[in-house]
Amino acid sequence: LATIGTYGMQNTEKRVGFFFTEVAGFSRFGSYTGNANADGPFVYTGFKPLWVMVKRVNSSAQWFIHDRERNTHNPIDENLRANQTNAGSTTTAMDFLSNGFKIRHNASVISINESGAPFIYFAFAEHPFNGDGENAFATAL
Protein backbone atom coordinates (compact mmCIF):
# COMPACT_ATOMS: atom_id res chain seq x y z
CA LEU A 1 0.00 0.00 0.00
CA ALA A 2 1.39 3.39 -1.02
CA THR A 3 0.19 6.80 0.12
CA ILE A 4 -0.03 10.28 -1.34
CA GLY A 5 -0.61 12.60 1.59
CA THR A 6 -3.29 10.85 3.60
CA TYR A 7 -4.78 9.05 0.61
CA GLY A 8 -4.01 5.32 0.55
CA MET A 9 -3.65 3.50 -2.77
CA GLN A 10 -3.66 -0.17 -3.55
CA ASN A 11 -0.67 -1.51 -5.48
CA THR A 12 -2.87 -1.98 -8.57
CA GLU A 13 -3.94 1.69 -8.72
CA LYS A 14 -2.08 3.90 -11.17
CA ARG A 15 -1.34 7.59 -10.66
CA VAL A 16 0.53 10.18 -12.68
CA GLY A 17 2.55 12.89 -11.00
CA PHE A 18 3.73 16.14 -12.54
CA PHE A 19 6.63 17.85 -10.80
CA PHE A 20 7.68 21.39 -11.61
CA THR A 21 10.50 23.65 -10.56
CA GLU A 22 10.63 27.38 -11.11
CA VAL A 23 13.04 28.81 -13.66
CA ALA A 24 13.65 32.53 -13.22
CA GLY A 25 12.12 34.46 -16.09
CA PHE A 26 10.37 31.36 -17.45
CA SER A 27 7.99 29.85 -14.88
CA ARG A 28 6.53 30.53 -11.45
CA PHE A 29 4.30 28.44 -9.21
CA GLY A 30 2.59 29.51 -6.03
CA SER A 31 -0.65 30.38 -4.30
CA TYR A 32 -2.98 33.26 -3.52
CA THR A 33 -6.13 33.83 -1.49
CA GLY A 34 -9.36 34.97 -3.15
CA ASN A 35 -11.19 38.14 -2.10
CA ALA A 36 -14.51 37.82 -4.03
CA ASN A 37 -13.98 41.22 -5.65
CA ALA A 38 -13.76 42.18 -9.34
CA ASP A 39 -10.60 44.05 -8.24
CA GLY A 40 -9.07 40.74 -7.20
CA PRO A 41 -5.64 39.73 -5.94
CA PHE A 42 -2.46 40.64 -7.83
CA VAL A 43 0.01 37.76 -8.20
CA TYR A 44 3.65 38.68 -8.80
CA THR A 45 5.48 36.37 -11.22
CA GLY A 46 8.41 38.57 -12.25
CA PHE A 47 7.41 38.33 -15.95
CA LYS A 48 4.46 38.91 -18.26
CA PRO A 49 2.53 35.64 -18.45
CA LEU A 50 1.66 33.87 -21.67
CA TRP A 51 -0.20 31.04 -19.92
CA VAL A 52 -1.65 30.72 -16.39
CA MET A 53 -3.48 27.79 -14.80
CA VAL A 54 -5.41 28.28 -11.54
CA LYS A 55 -7.07 25.73 -9.23
CA ARG A 56 -8.91 26.17 -5.94
CA VAL A 57 -7.12 23.93 -3.44
CA ASN A 58 -9.91 23.00 -1.04
CA SER A 59 -12.64 22.01 -3.50
CA SER A 60 -13.25 19.94 -6.60
CA ALA A 61 -13.48 23.10 -8.72
CA GLN A 62 -12.12 23.24 -12.25
CA TRP A 63 -8.54 23.86 -13.37
CA PHE A 64 -8.85 27.15 -15.29
CA ILE A 65 -6.30 27.90 -18.02
CA HIS A 66 -5.97 31.45 -19.36
CA ASP A 67 -3.59 32.31 -22.20
CA ARG A 68 -2.56 35.20 -24.41
CA GLU A 69 -2.90 33.20 -27.64
CA ARG A 70 -6.72 33.34 -27.68
CA ASN A 71 -6.99 36.72 -25.90
CA THR A 72 -4.46 39.20 -27.21
CA HIS A 73 -5.49 42.00 -24.81
CA ASN A 74 -6.85 42.37 -21.27
CA PRO A 75 -9.02 41.14 -19.79
CA ILE A 76 -8.00 37.57 -20.56
CA ASP A 77 -11.44 36.00 -20.21
CA GLU A 78 -11.43 33.06 -22.62
CA ASN A 79 -10.40 29.99 -20.67
CA LEU A 80 -10.10 26.25 -20.88
CA ARG A 81 -10.74 23.77 -18.10
CA ALA A 82 -8.04 21.13 -17.91
CA ASN A 83 -10.29 18.64 -16.15
CA GLN A 84 -13.29 18.89 -18.50
CA THR A 85 -14.06 18.06 -22.10
CA ASN A 86 -15.91 21.25 -23.06
CA ALA A 87 -14.12 23.60 -25.44
CA GLY A 88 -13.92 26.53 -23.07
CA SER A 89 -15.81 29.50 -21.73
CA THR A 90 -15.59 33.14 -20.68
CA THR A 91 -16.71 32.62 -17.07
CA THR A 92 -13.55 33.99 -15.43
CA ALA A 93 -11.14 36.82 -16.22
CA MET A 94 -7.69 38.11 -15.33
CA ASP A 95 -5.30 40.75 -16.60
CA PHE A 96 -1.81 39.75 -17.73
CA LEU A 97 0.59 42.47 -16.58
CA SER A 98 4.31 43.07 -17.17
CA ASN A 99 5.22 41.47 -13.82
CA GLY A 100 2.33 39.12 -13.03
CA PHE A 101 -1.42 38.72 -13.28
CA LYS A 102 -4.45 40.26 -11.57
CA ILE A 103 -7.73 38.48 -11.01
CA ARG A 104 -10.65 40.43 -12.52
CA HIS A 105 -13.51 38.17 -11.52
CA ASN A 106 -15.74 38.30 -8.48
CA ALA A 107 -16.90 35.20 -6.62
CA SER A 108 -19.46 32.88 -8.15
CA VAL A 109 -20.21 29.18 -8.25
CA ILE A 110 -17.47 28.73 -10.86
CA SER A 111 -14.67 31.11 -10.01
CA ILE A 112 -10.99 31.80 -9.47
CA ASN A 113 -11.61 34.27 -6.64
CA GLU A 114 -13.93 33.02 -3.88
CA SER A 115 -13.51 35.01 -0.67
CA GLY A 116 -10.89 33.48 1.61
CA ALA A 117 -10.39 30.45 -0.64
CA PRO A 118 -6.84 29.22 -1.32
CA PHE A 119 -5.75 28.84 -4.95
CA ILE A 120 -2.61 27.47 -6.58
CA TYR A 121 -1.28 28.71 -9.90
CA PHE A 122 1.17 27.72 -12.62
CA ALA A 123 2.47 30.59 -14.79
CA PHE A 124 4.74 30.58 -17.85
CA ALA A 125 6.33 33.66 -19.43
CA GLU A 126 5.37 35.30 -22.69
CA HIS A 127 9.05 36.00 -23.42
CA PRO A 128 10.95 33.29 -21.51
CA PHE A 129 14.36 34.78 -20.88
CA ASN A 130 16.32 35.01 -17.68
CA GLY A 131 18.28 38.08 -16.59
CA ASP A 132 21.41 37.43 -18.65
CA GLY A 133 19.53 37.25 -21.97
CA GLU A 134 19.77 33.49 -22.39
CA ASN A 135 16.72 31.44 -23.21
CA ALA A 136 15.50 30.28 -19.80
CA PHE A 137 14.12 27.01 -21.16
CA ALA A 138 17.44 26.04 -22.69
CA THR A 139 19.21 27.04 -19.47
CA ALA A 140 16.86 24.79 -17.47
CA LEU A 141 17.75 21.74 -19.58
Describe this structure in a few short sentences.
With 141 residues, this protein is mainly beta. It is built from one helix and ten strands.
Count of strand segments:
10
The low-confidence runs, each spanning 5 or more residues with pLDDT under 50, are 136-141
Rg estimate, integer Å: 16 Å
Largest sheet: 5 strands, antiparallel
Strand content: 25-35%
Specify the number of helices. Answer: 1
Helix content: under 10%
Strand order of the largest sheet: 3-10-5-6-7
Shape estimate: globular
N-C termini distance: 34 Å
Key features of this structure:
single chain; 141 residues; mainly beta; 5-stranded antiparallel β-sheet; globular; disordered C terminus
Description:
Helices cover 4% and strands 34% of the residues. It has 141 residues and is mainly β. Strands 3-10-5-6-7 form a five-stranded antiparallel beta sheet, with no helix packed on it. The protein is globular and about 50 Å long.
Write the layout of secondary structure elements.
Layout: E1 2-4, E2 7-9, E3 27-33, E4 42-44, E5 49-56, E6 63-67, E7 79-81, E8 94-97, E9 100-103, E10 118-125, H1 136-140
Antiparallel strand pairs: 1-2, 3-10, 4-9, 5-6, 5-10, 6-7, 8-9
